[in-house]
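Example record

One chain of 249 residues, shown exactly as stored in the release files.
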Amino acid sequence: MRGLPFPWALLAPGLLPDVALAEVGLASPVGGFFVLLVVAAAAVAGLLMVLAGSIGLARRGRSAGRLAVLCVGVVLMSPVLWIAAWELLELVPRNVAWDFSSHRSVSQLAPKEGSPVEGRDHDAEYYYQGNLRSSIRLPSGRQWSGSASSMYLRARSGQIVGIDWRGSHAGAAQTHREAGRMLGELGFAGHGLDRWYAEAGAGGRRAFSVEAGRDPMIRVEVRRAWGAQDASPEDALWHVNVYVSWEAR
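Predicted structure tokens for this chain:
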């Protein structure tokens, strides 16, 4: 939700999971349901006005009143239309590949994805969201690839200093396979992922985390998806997060 502009960030929580509610301070089912009702009512009213305006224009010709009804209807429907377009765009796969093994210049990134951090002239943040098929290379032959739902990169003085990679949600079995593959690509050994998987299969909710290195520091986590805390082991969703920092102390 970081990339969702105002005012739609206030309306989207009604159609999105609890994590979206938390982003806008409506972290409760009641708040989300209320927002959903408001958006749905506005959309229905807008649809009726668009139909009335269109029929009026077709039968009676153009007039200021009928055009005004049509325009107001489109405005009332716009939040739902925008959210639907947003969700559809996020389903389209995007390929992202970066090689930070020899240099970490922000020149590798698309400039339009970055925005300066307020009050810090030499810092910038880059955010990517959607269905991201990513491949990232690090020093010493380490790398990882996979499907991410979002990525956040921090830069200082034109150099990448941190990566926050968040994988797509999946069941415990698929998450176990993906996490195991990523840990192998990143050179982790003796990490205890199989023990986590056995506990998850038995209904465990504990997250998994392993960390190594200092230049950069790499941490891999497996966490239960937000809003799935009470789901059964078969229905629970998990996701893999990878954090990389060249500023670790």
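Notes: Strands lie at 93-99, 114-116, 123-137, 143-156, 159-167, 208-212, 217-224, 238-245.
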